[in-house]
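thread: overnight batch results

M.L. [08:02]
morning all. the overnight job finished for the chain we discussed friday. pasting input first so we're all looking at the same thing
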Amino acid sequence: MEISAIPFKQYDLVKVVGRVDGATANQFADELDRIAKNGHHRIILDLSAAEYISISGLWVLVNIQKVCKRHMRGDLILAGVPERIRSHINLTGFANFFRTYDDLADALAQLLPVQDSPSVPSDALPTMEKPMDNKKYRLEPGVDLSYANLMKMTLDSMDLSRAVLARANLDAAQMHNSKLTQVNLFAASLEKTDLNGANLSQACLSAANLVRVILVGVNLSNATMLMADLNGALLNGCTFDGSDLRGLNLHKASLGKSTLLRCKLACADFSRASIDDVNFTGSDLAGANFAHASLYWAKLVDCILDGADFSGAEASESHFEGASMKGAVFFKSDFNAVDFSRADLTGANFYGANLKRANFKDARLDGAVFDKADLSKAKLTFEQLSYIKSLSGTIMPDGSVHR
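M.L. [08:03]
and the structure it wrote out:
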């Protein structure tokens, strides 16, 4: 892969040549990080000469877009996207995260007239150098506080339903039991904010910074949280039913006893998260990352988990009945006594996994790999075993080792 960048007016033009895969994703990320850290948050990425972008590469784009969107008019724009890469972006659910143009010339023609217009004076924006005093400002339903600095404010039990807080700074604010239904928090920063018991149903939190936020017992039903960053967040007992959470970053987050029924979670990152006793029934988790996560007693019944990564995860006694898990990876995971009945595990890789007492009744195992897995006392038929691609070194249900 080759990557080059040149400044052009208020944009950085970045051209990628070749493949962005596991071997080159770090180089790709480093170059885009360098641009963003230098204060350049308006990037046009020319992909006309790109041959392939892996899921790792797409995550780089998502993370850079999060950084860009936290700045005024920041944006990562894609130009000249080849059809094969466009299809991959559509499949992973990231298509709505980026503006795209047919080619670089088209992008510049559409964007430059906007850039040549007079900039908005800084004093025209509702941005404050000091935290607001709630005695001087009306904090009420529907108020527009875009870009406002509300850092460390106490807003407990306040009704801010339908308020506009896009790109506002709410870091370390106290918002216990506040009513935030239909609130617009697009690209807002709520790092370490305490939202215990708040109602955020139908709220927009897309691209928001929610690192280490406290959301215990919060109602997030039908909320939109595309590309939001919840790294290390505390979300125990939350309700997300029907929410759009595609591309959500939940690395090291805690979601114990939460419910995420019928949610859109394609390519969400749950790596090293605590997801014990969480109910995901009916959710779309295609391509999600559960590497080294804890999923004890979790319910992923009838979920879409095609291509999901469970490497190193611990999910004893969890339920995956009727789930679609084609091509999922379970490398050295602990899935003791898990229920896979009726699941579609076509092409799944269980290399080195602990599957003692797992239930595979009526599960589809065509082309699956079970090398060095432990299937002691697992429930599966001889017919199912005949469809498995590889069983080298596997401990079979009767305790014998397959050679």
